[in-house]
């Protein structure tokens, strides 16, 4: 089961140009984003990052601290891509003169005041950090579920910067954000955007296979917004809640589960080594392919799934078109072979908004503890009798 990425973007090293920090900017009197305090009397011996983040579970990025700047390295901005580093300079400090691999690394001032977010997955992290007011652009406004950003959209403080899914360079340049945070797919417009002075940095949290690792990318946004202490605190709370659910299920018999569904003539199912496979295992579920360690989704013959998993007790779906089991049968009559799991079919569509955005793919990315609790309550209802579902809903037969 591949994790959808809503209007995502990708920065590549070839199109990033250095952006030299020149002190606290004063040329943004029309800035619609956040305010910030900059260094007014620079002292080279002072550590301007008293609150620091350490990365415990995420594997896709690192943060290295220096007195007046940080180096954030995204280890794989896209599958198979080489690492990219960004130099985040505390505003008001002089631009550092770097050499070696960092000679041509982009430099940008932090805390940023204005962020164009290439994916809705970025928004809950910014909101949790108290930095929703930095969001001045999103790829597609209709998909946004984060309440703080929805309110800003309604107030006319957030621009949409894609046209039919493609990045509009002119809109980004005209918006003059401090940074465009991108994720996932390339755009031929990035060269023009960076040449115009808007830095593009890559957020590749979607490559994390560990749900906690993906949530820890809140520290990436903590570095951009100068909210490291809040990022550390928020992530620690999420991790504690997640592991608390895992601990509560120790020794409980696993529940046989059916995952995914038919797509393009085969059955698409998360591998055991995937993001969702990890969630199912941590929620006390099992399925015949749970020991496959490959990342991403498996494409299986429908016959093999019928043979091995037709008697599963629960069916977990991610199908925005299915509101009833009857909808599934209309899609493909072969689903009739799964009559038993269809009695307990659950879809992650409870939190879909009017524009089609699904908060499962937005807040659920930051809050795997909430997703895990939903799954645990589905797989072990006797242990979560009072649970109020956040993302999942039971599919009626008709």
Largest sheet, if any? 5 strands, parallel
**What best-fitting shape do the alpha-carbon axes yield?**
elongated
Low-confidence stretches: 1-31
Report the CATH topology name of the largest domain.
Answer: Rossmann fold
What's the count of strands?
19
Beta-strand residue fraction = 15-25%
What Rg is obtained from the alpha carbons, in whole angstroms? 22 Å
Q: End-to-end span in angstroms?
A: 25 Å
Average pLDDT rating: 91
CATH class of the largest domain: Alpha Beta
Task: Describe what you observe in this structure.
Strand 13 and strand 14 form a beta hairpin. The protein has a 5-stranded parallel sheet. It has a 5-stranded mixed sheet with strand order 15-12-17-18-19. A 4-stranded mixed sheet has the order 1-2-3-4. Helix 6 runs antiparallel to helix 7 and helix 7 packs parallel to helix 13. With 398 residues, it is α/β, with parallel strands linked by helices. The N terminus is likely disordered. The protein is elongated. The chain folds into 2 domains: 227 residues, Rossmann fold; 146 residues, Nitrogenase molybdenum iron protein domain (Rossmann fold), CATH 3.40.50.1980. The chain is built from 13 helices and 19 strands. It is 26% helix and 18% strand.
């Amino acid at each position: 089961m591949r994790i959808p990425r809503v209007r995502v973007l990708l920065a590549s090293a070839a199109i990033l140009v250095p952006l030299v920090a020149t002190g606290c900017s004063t040329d943004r009197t029309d800035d619609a984003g956040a305010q910030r305090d900059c260094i007014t009397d620079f002292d080279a011996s002072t550590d301007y990052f008293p609150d620091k983040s350490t990365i415990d579970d995420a594997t896709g990025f690192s943060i290295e601290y220096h007195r007046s700047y940080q180096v954030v390295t995204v280890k794989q901005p896209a599958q198979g891509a080489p690492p990219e580093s960004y130099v985040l300079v505390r505003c008001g400090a002089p631009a550092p003169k770097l050499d070696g691999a960092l000679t041509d690394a982009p430099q940008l001032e932090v805390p940023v005041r204005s962020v164009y977010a290439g994916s809705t997955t970025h928004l809950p992290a910014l909101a949790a950090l108290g930095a929703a007011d930095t969001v001045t652009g999103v790829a597609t406004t209709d998909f946004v579920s984060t309440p703080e950003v929805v309110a800003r959209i309604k107030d006319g403080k957030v621009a949409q910067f894609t046209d039919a899914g493609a990045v509009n360079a002119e809109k980004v340049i005209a918006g003059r954000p401090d940074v465009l945070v991108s994720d996932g797919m390339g755009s031929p417009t990035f060269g023009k955007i960076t040449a115009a002075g808007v830095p593009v940095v890559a957020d590749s949290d979607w490559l994390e296979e560990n749900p906690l690792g993906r949530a820890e990318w809140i520290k990436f946004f903590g570095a951009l917004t100068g909210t490291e202490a809040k990022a550390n605190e928020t992530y620690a709370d999420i991790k504690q809640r997640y592991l608390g659910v895992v601990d509560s299920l120790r020794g409980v018999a696993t529940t046989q589960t059916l995952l995914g569904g038919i797509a393009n003539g085969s059955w698409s199912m998360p591998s055991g080594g995937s993001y969702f496979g990890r969630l199912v295992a941590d929620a006390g579920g099992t399925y015949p392919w749970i020991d496959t360690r490959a990342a991403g989704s498996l494409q299986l013959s429908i016959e093999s799934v019928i043979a091995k998993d037709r008697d599963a007790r629960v069916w977990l779906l991610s199908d925005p078109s299915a509101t009833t089991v009857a909808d599934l049968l209309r899609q493909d009559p072969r689903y009739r072979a799964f009559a038993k799991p269809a009695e307990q079919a659950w879809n992650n569509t409870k939190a879909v908004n009017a524009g089609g955005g699904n908060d499962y793919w937005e807040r659920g990315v930051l809050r795997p503890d909430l997703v895990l609790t939903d799954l645990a309550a589905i797989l072990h209802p006797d242990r979560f009798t009072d649970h109020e579902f956040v993302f999942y809903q039971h599919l009626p037969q008709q």
